[in-house]
Amino acid sequence: MSGAGNVVFDKREQLEKIQSGLLPGEQIIAVYDAKGVGTGFIGLTDRRAIIQDNSFVGKKIAITSLPYSKISSVSMVSNKSFTGSYLSSSEIAIHVGTQTYSVEFRSDDKGRHVHDVILHYIIMR
User: What torsion do the CA atoms of 82, 111, 52, 49 make, to the nearest 10 degrees?
Assistant: First the structure.
């Protein structure tokens, strides 16, 4: 995990994709690589979550912006008991309207960071 200023990121090329689509004045917080089928990475800015979705037919990808104002909730996802710490999962789910976006990370601390940043911005709106 590297840092550019205060930005935390896993892969420079993913950071550069997020940087290329920023709105004026928008600041990047973190860009994390995702594991598993479907999601390539998630970027967090001070205005939105940005997900690269690799699950489109025909080898197409989509970069989807999820403004914090449209996110209704964020969940920690686990297939095991949460005895101990309920925030020790490497997978999160972001709920926007009737759609749910699931992202799995390579470590629990990245899942926790993404969860906490999104929760902060949806509570502060």
Answer: 110
CB 87 within 8 A of CB 14: no
Q: How far apart are CA 100 and CA 122, in angstroms?
A: 16
Q: Give the span between the Cα atoms of 12 and 21, in whole angstroms.
A: 15
Element (H, E) at 105: none
* pLDDT one-digit tens code per residue, 5-38: 689 999 999 999 999 999 999 999 999 999 977 7
* CA gap 28, 32 in Å, rounded: 12
DSSP three-state, residue 17: helix
The encoded tokens of residue 15 equal 């950071």
